[in-house]
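Input.
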Amino acid sequence: MKKTVYPLLLICAFLLSSIDAQAQKFGYINSVQLLSELPDIKNADEQLQTFQAGLVEKGQGMMKSLEDNYQKYMAEAQSGSLSLVQQQQKEGELAKQQQEIQNYEYEVQNQIGAKREELYAPILEKVRLVIEEIGKQEGYTMIFDSSAGGLLSADEGDDILNTVKAKLGL
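Output.
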């Protein structure tokens, strides 16, 4: 009797697991396409470009000042009006000014990254919540991002891009 019960249990377990696997529902979305169509992202990009332009303008002013100081130093050095000590002092000042510019460039990159995060985080969170809401409402087991390159085939899933766009008012 035990010999017939175990094979029957295995067959039942196999059938139930295959039924459960068929009941799973998968969806996918191209997040790059969605984000490119969001007006909020376009506004954030414009704000980021304006912010970046202001930082770049300041950096260009610093570069212009360095170039002017260098030209002035070269003219004084070639005319022989500077002593060796004064030349070394001027070169030190120029090196310090150049280091300040390099530090500023590094700071600018950090500021731009922080500003991008500040502007995009609420938008991405809003999109994530809408996708989760649709996933729950429609009974999706998983929703994949087809723009990430990990989705090889979508025959068994639903493209939810239009549903998400409708929820976001696009």
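The CA atoms of residues 97 and 103 lie 10 Å apart.
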